[in-house]
Amino acid sequence: MSQKIKAPNDKNRNFLWGIVALVVICVVFIGFMVFNGRKSTDVELSAADVSFSVAVEDGVVQLRSDDVADDAPTADVYEDYSCTHCADLVEADSESMEGALDAGEINVNLHTVNFLDSNGNESSSRTGAVAMAIAETGDAGAFWAFHEKAFGDQAEVARDWRFDELADAAEQLGVDSDVVDSIRDESVMDQYKPNLQANGDRLRELMGDQAGTPALYIDGEYLTVERDPEDPSKLKDWVPDVIGGEAGDAPQESAAETESSDSE
Question: Which residues lie within the region annotated Disordered (predicted)?
Fold first, then answer.
């Protein structure tokens, strides 16, 4: 029997086509991974419509109404953007807090800490620094929208988004371009991380070994974060009680388990 003799270049040609196909597959795969990694910001973000102001002083985000009542209580909230219980508290109190701020019934100081940075994943510092940078622009609507998004979608935003995604979000919120650039080039970390650490040190001075988040003080007095009596799986909205009456009890057995500084 006779065999068909193949041209000597056939094997080389087949090999080259195989290489081309492999390169195309790799390019498609890399493109998919890049797209998939950035798709988290494929959401429409817009600044909140609020009637209060925002400022940063000594690393503390201050929320105030221009028409705040003289006897309005001041709430100091210690929170960590990676803390699940902090996200639970934001879910419980954000709507009433916004309303009370708009009405001038309360002053709020947000002390952002970075207790839960761990294993090289500085999610608490990263998101906290970005939030502080947005707050320092004085755009209360942009800050409040970012704060709500970061805690409301904590697993996606606060824990997974990197600086490019966070910069994209800030840009959507109308934040000044120089601030967006400082987020994208990560320089916000050097600028604001020391503030987060200082806030954590301040909470340790207040609570000692019990230091953890969320922690709430009303006019300097510790207020226990309680479980919602109607749904113990959630935290109670503390704002109506504070506006309508006196608050304050010893920082002992909180009904909500806090995420401790020992988790660093």
Answer: 227-264
Distances (CA, A) of 177 to 39, 81, 128, 134, 261: 22, 24, 19, 11, 34
Residue whose structure tokens are 């799986």: 233
- Hey, what amino acid is at 148? E
pLDDT tens digit sequence for 94-111: 999 999 999 999 999 999
- The full set of domain ranges for the chain reads 51-263
pTM: 0.80
Provide the token pair at 148. Answer: 């709500």
> CA separation (Å) from 14 to 6, 24, 58, 255?
12, 15, 67, 70
C-alpha 135/C-alpha 74 separation (Å) is: 18
CA 203 to chain CA mean position, Å:
19
pLDDT over 80 (residue 75): yes
51-263 CATH fold:
Glutaredoxin (3.40.30)
User: How far apart, in whole angstroms, are the C-alpha atoms of residue 109 and residue 193?
Assistant: 18
- Name which of 189, 222, 188 is nearest 203 in CA terms: 222
Could you tell me which residue, 256 or 18, shows the higher pLDDT? 18
Nearest in space to 148 (alpha carbons), one of 103, 91, 214: 91
pLDDT value for 9: 54
- Number of CB atoms found within 10 A of residue 241's CB: 14
